């Protein structure tokens, strides 16, 4: 939920975008599976490290995704 209202567009940082998508899919499950897929694509496209600074609340899920991507 937005906490800042502004006339100018507000752009999320990559870490906040990933955290938002992960928290949404963790909270709503299969109904938001596209958010999970988006995070996978973001990790791949940006070649993010395992210790990327995502929010503590979703860090474990982020690391599970990273581990799965790098287990190939």
Descriptive overview:
By secondary structure, the protein is mostly helical. It has one domain. It contains three helices and no strands. The longest helix has 15 residues. It is globular, with a radius of gyration of 13 Å. The mean pLDDT is 92.
Quick synopsis:
This protein is 56% helix and 0% strand.
Shape label: globular
The gyration radius over C-alpha positions equals 13 Å
Mean pLDDT across the residues is 92
Helix content: 55-70%
State the helix count. 3
Which sheet architecture does the biggest sheet show? none
The topology string of helices and strands comes to HHH
Number of strands: 0
Number of separate domains: 1
Give the percentage of residues in beta strands.
under 5%
What keyword list fits this structure?
72 residues, mainly alpha, 3 helices, globular
Secondary structure: elements and pairs:
Elements: H1 14-28, H2 33-46, H3 59-69
Helix pairs in contact: 1-2, 2-3
